[in-house]
Amino acid sequence: MSALILLTVFGIIVLYLGFANNKTILAPVAITGLLITIFLSIKDWNLGSKYFHDMMIIDNFSIAFNVSMVIITILIFLFGVNYYKRMEHYVAEQYALMIFALTGAFLMTSFSNLIMLFLGIEILSIPLYILAGGKKTSFRSNEASFKYFLLGSFATAFFLFGIALVYGASATFYLPEIKTYIAQFNGQLPPMLMVGLLFILIGVSFKVAVAPFHFWSPDVYEGSPTLVTAFMATVVKTAGFAAFYRLLGMGLLPLPAPLEKTLWVMTMLSLLVGNLAALRQTNFKRLLAYSAIVNTGFMMLAMLSQHDSSASVLLYYTFVYSLATVPLFIIFIYMKRASSGLEELTIFRGLYKQKPWMAVFMTIFLMSLAGLPPTAGFLAKYRVFVLSISRGYLAISIFAIVMAIIGVYYYFYVLREAFSESDNPNPIEISRLNSALIVVCGVAVLLLGLFVWSVPI
Amino acid sequence: MVFLFYMLSAIMIICALLVVFSKNPINNVIYLILCFLAMAGHYILLNAQFLAVVHVIVYTGAIMVLFLFVIMLLNLNKAIILRKSTVTRVSAVITGGIFFLVLLAATRQTFEIHAKYPFASDFGLVSGIGKVLFNEFLLPFEMSSILFISAMVGAMMFGKKDV
């Protein structure tokens, strides 16, 4: 709780520092706040504290996910030092909004009440609608913001309607009570409760962009400023899955058979649709958006194979995925600047010739996303498959493995561009801080792949 | 009470029909406001004071005034009669008819719901809601301030001209 309060306070401090007209102090202050947040979060480890009439339960699960999201946000802020150098206006607001979004993510990992889940999703989403439109002069950015806002509002309406129906049936918002209420029906749920649960699942699925609720994500990822896209693809996805897992584990499991089947179909659809669409992309941001949809499928697989270790596998997967995605977006920002604003895959041409080390690290990140050894991405996918096969979902696991193999094609398509010759290479200028960060991320991805760790959550 | 209920219902139905049938957009919006006011009256009849007040403030006060402003700013206040092709009209009639059938079938299936939980006499009053809001639901109430501050920051970012 103290971590949450401190995070909010730091958000407001950063907002006010905007008056100082000094962009250089923003990132250090924000990062200091995040570091203290990590410290305060870890202090609560193993306490399992409940707050305000059980509105929030901060247990090891929420602390582990919170810390992993804060670490990724620190990475994004460190990259932001360089990214926001060119921006004249509203830099403080951008940092503050990301911190506010993070408070929403904190609520999403520690709710025990549907009201808190709703508030968390909204506090996460509304700053994102604004951040997506951060480039006011770019039509693409405006489009992304507007599209995200409209579709997000629809999803929120569904979600809220679902909560209302569940409340109407069970007369409670508190998840453990909903669980006991559902359990008394033995799988034969009354229609109102069934529709309510379906709507709640639709709302959450939209936020994590599972097919068939994924249509917003490529457009929004493409139009938003790249750093915001990195934030969406990593922190928001992690928060969404933490919330999904908690919602299922705390309240809705065991799901009634029709709903469970729906979720499995959605898992397979995201794997298939994401892969097929990614094969045809020429825009790098859209490619990563579809790759995010495929990875969502794997995360769903880990989440639906209910076991004691599911949470740990999910945490490992989201963290490793985020650790590879953020630096990829940063490398993309530099290539985009060098080629004066293009976003095609061809801008990576000649990367190896100019900056061999960058091309090598890019290989590591792409291999991690594709799930090839010796990177951490391999171990993450391996653990997901072991989990799902051990729970008896053999057919779906084999399908997912085939999909993972197909995925290798388009990741290596990008790599082929990076290692091919370019006719007129543009100079790539990269700051020292960012080079160091890319190296750190690369080494982390390699080291995490060397040994299996699991957090007891 | 019964007389009030029927009067409010009649006002609501007439206003709703006028929303659809009147040609001038400004009149449409004003009839919709009347319709919402009548609905607030229904809430009061149902002993839901708070809901009635919020309904008036949010719907009639904020949303519909916003609607009026948009219509006036975009200069839409002329009566526009759109000519639709026969295909559109026929398909619209068919769709509407099907929806009507569905609703009719749904009303045939209805049954009376008996209250599961005891009805307290202060239910729906402002004081009762205030007590719950500042006791059980204090955390969500406070947390929504973060939501509002980020929305305000966004309004400022989008609304202000870059100097």
Structure description:
The complex is a heterodimer of chains A (457) and B (163). By secondary structure, chain A is mainly alpha-helical. Chain A has a domain at 256-457. Helix content of chain A is 75%, strand content 1%. In chain A, strand 1 and strand 2 (56-58) form a beta hairpin. Chain B has 163 residues and is mainly α. Chain B has two domains: 1-79, Four Helix Bundle (Hemerythrin (Met), subunit A), CATH 1.20.120.1200; 122-163. Chain B is extended and about 60 Å long. At the A-B interface, helix 1, helix 4 and helix 5 of A face helix 6 of B.
Secondary-structure element order of chain A, N to C: HHEEHHHHHHHHHHHHHHHH
Radius of gyration of chain A (CA) equals 21 Å
Helix content of chain B: over 70%
Strand content of chain A: under 5%
Helical segment count of chain B: 6
Secondary structure class of chain A reads mainly alpha
Spans where pLDDT lies below 50 across 5 or more residues of chain A: none
Oligomer: heterodimer
SSE order of chain B: HHHHHH
Overall pLDDT metric of chain A: 91
Please report which band the strand proportion of chain B falls in: under 5%, 5-15%, 15-25%, 25-35%, 35-45% or over 45%: under 5%
Label the structural class of chain B.
mainly alpha
Helix percentage range of chain A: over 70%
In short:
The complex is a heterodimer of chains A (457) and B (163). By secondary structure, chain A is mostly helical. In chain A, 75% of the residues lie in helices and 1% in strands.
Keywords for this structure?
heterodimer; A: mainly alpha; 18 helices; 2 strands; 75% helix; globular; B: 163 residues; mainly alpha; Four Helix Bundle (Hemerythrin (Met), subunit A); 2 domains; 6 helices
Write the layout of secondary structure elements.
The complex is a heterodimer of chains A (457) and B (163).
Chain A: H1 2-17, H2 26-43, E1 49-51, E2 56-58, H3 60-83, H4 91-110, H5 114-132, H6 139-170, H7 175-183, H8 191-208, H9 216-223, H10 226-252, H11 257-279, H12 284-304, H13 310-338, H14 351-354, H15 356-370, H16 376-390, H17 394-419, H18 432-448
Antiparallel strand pairs in A: 1-2
Chain B: H1 2-21, H2 25-45, H3 49-73, H4 86-108, H5 126-133, H6 138-159
